[in-house]
Amino acid sequence: MKFDLDTFNEILLTITRNKTRSLLTAFGVFWGIFMLVTLMGGGNGFKALMSSNFEGFAQNSAFVWPQRTGEAYKGFRKGRWWNLEQTDIQRVRQIEGVDIVTCLQNRWGATAVYQDKKSESVVIKGLYPEYDFIEKQKVKYGRFINDIDILEKRKVCFIGKKVSEELFGKDVDPCGKLIKADGIYYQVIGMAGDTSGNIQISGSADESIAIPFSTYAATYNIGGDIGLMCLTMKSGYKVTEVQPHIESVVKQYHLLHPDDTQCMQFLNAEALFSMVDSLFKSINLLIWMIGLGTLISGVIGVSNIMMVTVKERTTEIGIRRAIGATPRTIMEQILTESMVLTLIAGMAGISFSVFILQMMNMGMESSNLPADFQVSFGMAIGAAIMVMALGITAGIAPAYRAMNIKPIEAIRDE
């Protein structure tokens, strides 16, 4: 069928012949594609918002810290306290599959002072440079702790954004200045960017002061003890596979019962990331089910209305056949009408959806939230192609019915 201006005008005339019916039919398709695209865009934005909380965090990481023992073993009573040691790092590092191993120690409730300004409830963290591989540091000014700081036990610190703003003000480079934290003077070597909303290990990074672990150990006289062991796996290894070997090595050295499940906490960050990923996949599947279900119901409505239209136009179709129109021409006309009606409604739905998502984006930007509620160009094109395909599908049954109308029977019925 040749699709020209006359053909389009004829289709438009047919659609507008019964405006209310056409409008209600088109609304079903409009609402279906609007729901699908909006839910997909909203899902993408929600995923981006959640993913920002994991930004810079090693997905194949794990954390170990000691707890009271739950079993008596080799003369030691149940319920005793024990401590991880720096020598455990060396032992765990020898286990196959383990990549980075480091540690963290913290001191809560400290107060930082600069001249007449204070920052209270600060967390002082003792860290090694390798911790940057566990939780990527967002350095806004200066640098993070390095190996020389560790070797020379320098009294330097890397401070969080909130601490810096309370001591020095907003957008001020604090590097080189001396602050007093928990009664000890440290020179600021760097400041972190905004980490609000991110996963926090042992306190908020915005409210923390990180110092070299060697300096922390000497200042607070902790000896070889560590509070938290942090590690990542090599490529191709899963935390769940290596976890039993880590627990076995630690338990054997510290004389802990091999079957004691309470003596240490093992946080598998990889499992948490996997759970979140599965959640997003389930949400995505649910979005497709809801959106497609609504869209298909709208397309069924188009098909039913086209069937009614064909019945009403039986005489017209019969006359067309009588003056030479072929069955194929009749079929193409009905299919085209169905596709045009569906396509107009679908494109209106996509356009309105993009508008709503853009309004949501503007609201998020004003709240400084990193969400990105939008649909990709490929998704929009895919939605348009799907609408066209469904429009053709909706017109197949009415088109076959129209094609089988006999001219003489159509005129006799009239």
Quantity of strands, as a count: 12
* Low-confidence regions: none
Radius of gyration: 34 Å
Structural class: alpha+beta
* Tally of structural domains: 2
Q: How much β-strand is present in the residues?
A: 15-25%
Chain-averaged pLDDT = 84
Give the number of helices. 13
Sequence of secondary-structure elements: HHEEHEEHEHEHEEEHEEHEHHHHH
How does the major sheet shape up?
6 strands, mixed, barrel
Helix fraction, binned, reads: 40-55%
Distance between the termini: 27 Å
Strand order of the largest sheet: 3-4-9-6-8-7
Tell the overall outline: elongated
Question: How would you explain this protein's 3D organization?
Answer:
- The mean pLDDT is 84.
- By secondary structure, the chain is an alpha+beta fold.
- A 6-stranded mixed β-barrel has the order 3-4-9-6-8-7. A two-stranded antiparallel sheet has the order 2-10.
- The protein has 2 domains: 5-54 and 274-411, no CATH class; 61-269, no CATH class.
- The protein has helices spanning 5-16, 19-52, 86-93, 131-134, 147-151, 161-168, 213-220, 239-253, 269-312, 314-322, 327-366, 377-403, 407-413; strands spanning 61-66, 84-85, 98-114, 117-127, 139-142, 156-159, 178-181, 184-192, 208-212, 225-226, 228-233, 264-268.
- The two termini are 27 Å apart.
- A hairpin with a 2-residue loop joins strand 3 and strand 4.
- The radius of gyration is 34 Å and the shape is elongated.
